[in-house]
Prior knowledge:
Blueprint: H1 2-14, H2 23-29, H3 33-42, E1 47-50, E2 54-60, H4 61-65, H5 72-82, H6 89-100, E3 104-108, H7 110-118, H8 124-128, E4 131-132, E5 138-142, E6 148-159, E7 165-174, H9 176-184, H10 187-193, E8 194-198
Antiparallel strand pairs: 1-2, 2-7, 3-5, 3-8, 4-6, 5-6, 6-7
Helix pairs in contact: 2-3, 3-6
Amino acid sequence: MKNILLVFIIMLVFTGCFSQITPEQRIASSSYPELTRHILDANLSNISRIEDERIVFEEYMSGKFGSVSHTLNEARNEYLRRYDSSRDAIANAFIANAKTQKHIVRMYKANVNAALTHNLPLTWELKNHEYSNNLDNAFIEFDENDRIIAVLARAHWHGTTIGVNDYLVSIIAFGSNARYVESHISNNTLQNGFIAEFR
């Protein structure tokens, strides 16, 4: 039995089942290859995973701020006081890519961000921990026909081992995720939450 298992493992290794996916393969399988390439080229250190229709980033914000918080409200307030996600490297890369495509990016209030996260597939951490989705601005990329091409939404999950730890999850979603958002979020919600436009 051990010999059969060993032969099976060797076959898996030599047939490439354990081979790592290259950046070029990730780009080729993406439903928005230009955006995927741009994000990879930006060399952002907090990429958690790259999938065919979304890119997920995760950052331990409590560590960035130097300590955990005592309460959930304290964690949220600390984040809002010390960090502006609308100007971070992820938002900048998202906007820069849209400009190279001659698309428009619109920034929205936190209530639109909450609506987006309710309409996107969440990570395991967000599904299994208490989370906040109303602390950050949202970004939506539109093409020349005013169709949604991609979205950037944020949510925070909070671990509570010793105090409250804040983890920021940023999700760039496109492909069928963008189509789903477009058909489920009302124009009224977008109009009322609009802040600025980037060309």
